[in-house]
Each structure stands twice: as structure tokens, then as C-alpha cells.
Amino acid sequence: MAKLHTKKLFVKALNKKFGKDFDLASQKTEYKRLGPEQNARKREFMEAAKKLEGKRGISFYNPYVHCGGVPLGQRQLVPYKLSTTEYIVEGDDLHFVNNPAMQQMWDDIRRTVVVGLDMAHEVLEKRLGKEVTPETINNYLEILNHAMPGAAVVQEHMVETHPGLVDDCNVRMFTGDDDLADEIDDQYLIDINKLFPADQAEQIKAAMGKTSWQAIHIPTIVSRTCDGGTASRWSAMQLSMTFIDAYNMCAGEAAVADLAYAAKHAAVIQMSEMLPARRARGPNNPGGLSFGFMADMVQTSRTKPWDPTQVSLNVVAAGTMLYDQIWLGSYMSGGVGFTQYATAAYTNDVLDDFSYYSCDYMMDKYGGFAKAPMNLDVVRDIATETTLYALEQYEEFPTLLEDHFGGSQRAGVVAAASGIGSACATGNSQGGLAGWYLSMCVHKESHGRLGFFGYDLQDQCGPTNVFSYQSDEGSPLEIRGANYPNYAMNVGHQGEYAGITSAAHAARGDAYSINPLIKVTFANPALLFTWDDIRKGYGMGGAREFRAAGDRSLVMPAV
Amino acid sequence: MAYTPQYYPGNTSVGINRRKHMSGNLEKLRDIPEADIVSIMGHRAPGADYPSTHPPLKEMGEPDCPVRQLVEPTPGAAAGDRIRYSQFADSMYFAPSIPYWRSYWGAINCRGCDPGTLSGRQIIEARERDIEAYTKTQMDSEMTDVALCSMRGCTVHGHSLRLEENGMMFDMLARSEMGADGNIYYAKDQVGIPLDKKINVGKPMSEAEAKKRTTIFRADAVPFSGTVGARKPDEALEALHHMWERRSLWGYRPE
């Protein structure tokens, strides 16, 4: 029966990489050792370095210093197809330094805070006796969209920021109160009823009640110059000044402190938690970003709710890039190796094939998404079958095997598919996590190898923390994150965990994984990154079709 | 009744080979001279004295310690050798050994060693004269096929790549090569430094021989649990499921 589910989605990508008539199943090949010149991007790099070397006055990029004169390209340097899309890019194009869309994805998170309006309105109404109406709110939002990018509202002789440098900044509000939403100017509203399917909109509004919130995205250039901790400070200053202007307050009265306190502390939701001193980052940095928040930022659940597998794959793509390439790969470590770990999860339709196989298998056997009972027997069945299927594909298609850099990628991809299938079947993220760990163990036992240093700490020991709810041992997957004790060191895991989180909720038809406010905030149509199709965004970035914010060329001499 | 370790479940050739590797009861296939092993490892010139990090233990006046009295030092530890390594890459195309089984072999059979297991390579660190002996055992035995396995200290990429047309595992640094006589020669040491002379390590196994001796489960040879649509769980998988379930329940601790 399981053979029916074999789609081999990766074959198309392999044909594009190796050529249509290439024998994908051969276990032998001729290694031509053509060096970096075989690859257009490496040639571009060498030419650019040559031009810049004289200007720099010091040696620069030279692939021939690699391994004492043996340069990259002893094997074929193959491109990557962004899964589900038609974008084919070079591996180099998927390093975040070379990919502005990837940078913007992270910028969009780092520059965002959600700030409640209700507390401020209470201060205005009860303490100051001001009237708050839809009209005053619209007026406030107009002033705020002038001030938030970096403009003055109640001061004389102020410096301001050039609009051309900060045009990505905007503030919209959203509310669970349909009557109020109807009165808000469309340009300032994230319209839950229009942007979400009806059942999801109802879930979100039920969770929010009649509360009102501001989705605040400060200028990218500000968060890039400072850091994630700046978002709440920058926004709080501009919010407070705007309240003074919009409601004709005294600039020095104590009530302003209440508004500032609400904006900076009492009513603000950061995208991520502060990290402990040994990792030394403020809020709104990737290490404190929970898997549940990551899952909620991705919007595929809103635009393709009928396809929970696709939802999960997009969350994996977002998470692997942010957690692996940027967080572990640069904040915590450095260099270029981490890109290789992450790309396997969102390129060449490999994880897609394994995940759809897993979900088709579980639907056939258990009757649909979130229909299976949540127990270890179900997880054992789905994760084992998925893992064995996936390993068989690597064995049947040697080109698929070598498509990944090594075992860490295989382990992450196979376990992610197992976790996604298990989570989709049970509608339970912990069930998905149990499937992940079983997959790791089955994989290691079959091939006698797994990932980096065996993934022995994180994965072979992992089953014990799945159902533990003691504070430093376990938690619901939704509130675990990159800084969870057992997850803080291994690349190739965290994005997949976020994907498994989303799988459970997408399978259940949930509108969000853990926080409806995050889900709505990232539905803002004015965000630059393609939050509903993560892989497309990366492809656009790699193909040099994506224009990011934060560019300074407007105020610099032309090159 | 003396205890006989069982080591590993299953009656497939892979299960049997895994037990052999773990038990250390390995067939010796070749006898590579010690000096050649030392040259390929690249830590010291053959015949040179062993550099040391401390005086011989007998000269150190060790404290009165029951553990020291109980555990006899390895020759390398007794002499004060520095700690060095050898690292092997094993192709997924039926190399006889696989990283975890090199580690299990080391941890069970080699005193004073520190195995490290990755997906494409496996390292064992130990006192220098000890690791030289352990490396020779690996190189000489059925754990190693000279075309499908190679000693690589760095730039190990190759375990999951298609084989060269002559059946050798890809090596970016081309540390070893097949001679016109069909023998495999090391031209560089394990970190890629050219050797003074090429070292003959013998002929590779035939494909059939490699498949007979391999410890990897593969769907196109000995599958772990059947194939898609025709599952047949191996005893090792059943044991694994049992361990996974116990580990999961232990963490839950429903009491």
C-alpha cells in the first residue's frame, strides 16, 4: 500500500541539476576535477576579488589557497532548486550575505514589536479624561506613520530621517472588535476578516476578544544599525510622542510615563525573549525566538490552509535559515558551513517528498489529518515507515544521497519528515517530536552513522525529554526555542522543530500555533519578505530579484 | 557459567558482521608494515622517538591511588606519549565498516581510547604508540577495504558520494590512488601532505566481497526492514523500538 505514496518529487530537481538524460541511479561517476572555474558564481567571485585587491592593498578571495592548492570544485558544483518553486540558484546564493531576501526575513522579525492599544486608551480615558474614538485612533495612526520612521511631531528644530531610507517602516492596528475594525481607515488596518479564512478569523478573534493591537515595524536600517532590543525602545519613543500630539497632552506630564511604560514593558510583545548572559543578547534576537512564534510568523497556514504539509515545509524553511544560518551560523559561531546544513531542508524537493510520503501514508492508515490517537504506537508506525522510506530513496538514487553535504542533512531531513507526519497524524506537536527522535534512532541503527558527532547528545538522548514537563528538561514544543537547554548547540534541528510545531496545528485546522497576535502581525501586507511562501522569497533573493530595505546608497556617492 | 556478550541482535549478514566488529574477532586480510602506517598517519617520522608530554609514569612518583593500582596503564600512557589520532572515512557503498561500528570496536576492544563518531568520518584518539597499534589493526583487518575506506584527517568529504569509475571513494585531496597493478597506493598522508614514497596498501575487495563483509543496511542489499510496501522488521529494529519507548516513558514519569 505504501508504494502508492511514493511520488519521488526530488527527481525533477535532480534532472534539472544533472541533466535530463543523466543516470540518477548510477553508483559510479567520473570526477572531472574542473575546479572553481566550472561554476559561474565562483568565476564572478574571482573576478570581483581581482578588481578589489588593488584597492584593498591586501590579498583577498583566492580559492587556490584552499587545502594547500586543491581548490573547491573537485566534484561537480551543482546548483540548488528552491523546493516547490522553479528557482534554481547556486549554493553561494543561499548564504545569507549573498541573499537579501534572507536578510529581510530576519530584519522583518527583528524590527517588529506588537504593542497593545487598550492600556494606553485606558490611561487617556480614565486618567486624563480624553475621548478615544475611531476618529481619534485614525488620527493617531496617521501621525504615528509619520513619526515611527523617524520624524518629529511635537518638537521644534528636530532632525529627521530621510523617507527614502525608512520607507519600509509602518504601523497598522488590528482588533478582535469587528465594529471598531469597520471604523478604522483601511490603510491602517490589518483586516483579520479579509486576510484569514473565515474559520481562522473566528478563532483568532475569539482568542483576542475585543482587544486592539499595533503591529509595529521600525525601519530596517535602524534595527540593522542597532539590534533587536532597539525595536521596543525606538517604537516606544515614537508612540509616546504620537500620543502627545494626537491627544494634545502635556509633553512632561506623568501620564506620559504610563504610556511609555505600556509601550516598553506592560503592553509590548517582543518577538523573542532575552538570552542569559553567557549568550548575551537582548530581546528580538533569534536565540530567544520560540518555535511557536516562528511557526506563527509564517503565513502559509493562512494562504494554504488545505495543505498542512506545505505549511510545515515553509516553517522549516524559515526556521532553518534563521536558526541555522543566522543564529547558530553567525551569532553563535561563524563562517560558511552552516548554510550547507540548512539548505537541505528547503531545496530540491527532498524534504517535500519525504513529508508528503509520510502524510499520505498516515492519511491512508489513520483517516486524515489529526485523526489518529496520540500514542506511541501511532508515532512508532509513522516515524519508522517514513524513515525507512527516506533512507531507501537515498540508496536508490545516489545523486540524491550526494545532493546533501553529509549525514547531518540526511538526519535532519528524514527526522523532520517523520516528525511532520507524526504531528499531522496526531495533531500533537509532542507526538511529532517523539517521531523526530525515533527517526534519528532508526536512521543511526540502519546506516551506522547519523549527524555531526553522531547527534548523540541531542537526538539519541532526546526521547527522554519529549514528554517531560520539568522546567529544565522539557516543555511543550511550542514554547521551546533555540535556547532550550538541549537544543542550543546543534545545527540542523531548530527550524525542523518549528516545522513540527506548525504541523500539529495546521493539521488540526488551528489558525495559529501559540499566539494569534503574532500570526496577525505577520499577515501585514506591507511586510517586505514573502511570509506566505518562504522558499519563493529565498529564490527571489538568490536570483537577485528581491529588493530589500535598509539600503544606504541613497546617501552615499555612487560606486 | 562464563558470560558471553551477545553484542548485537539479528541474523542477517549485517547483524553478524556488526557482532564481529564489536567483538574484535576480526579476520586479518593484509599486513601493512608499521612504518607505512606511521607514515600515513603523519604524526611522526617512522623510527623517530615518540614525543612525550610527561615523564614515564614510573618516574613520576604517582600518588597512592586505588584506581591507579587497579588499572594498568597502556604502553603509551606509561611512556608519557602525547595523544594523537587516526580518522577513517567509510563509503556508504558497502564499505566494511561504518562510523558507529568503528567506535564500538574501539570502545570495546581498545584501552585508553577516545572514539568520536560523525556521519562521514570516525576518529579515535589515544596515546601515540597505542593509536598506532589500533590503526594498524583497523588497516590490516576486514574492517577496512582500501578502496572504500581511507584515512583522512581533514577534508573528509566523500562517504556519501558516488564512487570513482575505478571503484574508489571520492577524495578531494586524492590521498590514495589505484596503481596500474590494481593495488591502492597512498600518495599523501591523512592530512594531505605528499609522502616521500607511495605506500602500497594492497588490492581492494571485489564488490561482492564488500557486500558480504559490510555492516551497513541498504535497501539494495540487506535492508534494515524490508522495502517500501514489503516491510519485514529486523530484530535490531524491534530492539530499538523497545529502547525508544522506554526512554520516552522514562522522561514522562507518569507517577
Keywords summarizing the entry:
heterodimer, A: 559 residues, mainly alpha, Methyl-coenzyme M Reductase, Chain B, domain 2, Alpha-Beta Plaits, 3 domains, four-stranded antiparallel β-sheet, two-stranded antiparallel ribbon, 25 helices, 7 strands, 50% helix, globular, B: 255 residues, alpha+beta, Lambda Exonuclease, Chain A, three-stranded antiparallel β-sheet, 9 helices, 32% helix, 17% strand, flat
Q: How would you sum up this structure, described in words?
A:
The complex is a heterodimer of chains A (559) and B (255). With 559 residues, chain A is mainly α. Chain A folds into 3 domains: 33-73, no CATH class; 96-102 and 285-515, Methyl-coenzyme M reductase, alpha/beta subunit, C-terminal (Methyl-coenzyme M Reductase, Chain B, domain 2, Up-down Bundle); 118-266, Alpha-Beta Plaits. Chain A is 50% helix and 5% strand. Chain A has 25 helices and 7 strands. In chain A, the strands form 2 sheets. Chain A has a 4-stranded antiparallel sheet with strand order 5-6-4-7. Chain A has a two-stranded antiparallel ribbon with strand order 2-3. In chain A, helix 16 runs parallel beside helix 19 and helix 19 (407-426) runs antiparallel to helix 20. Chain B starts with 12 loop residues before the first helix and ends with a helix. Chain B is flat. Chain B folds into 2 domains: 13-222, Lambda Exonuclease, Chain A; 223-255. Chain B has 9 helices and 10 strands. In chain B, the strands form 3 sheets. A 4-stranded antiparallel sheet of chain B has the order 2-3-1-4. In chain B, strands 6-7-8 form a 3-stranded antiparallel sheet, covered by helices on one side. In chain B, strands 9-10 form a two-stranded antiparallel sheet.
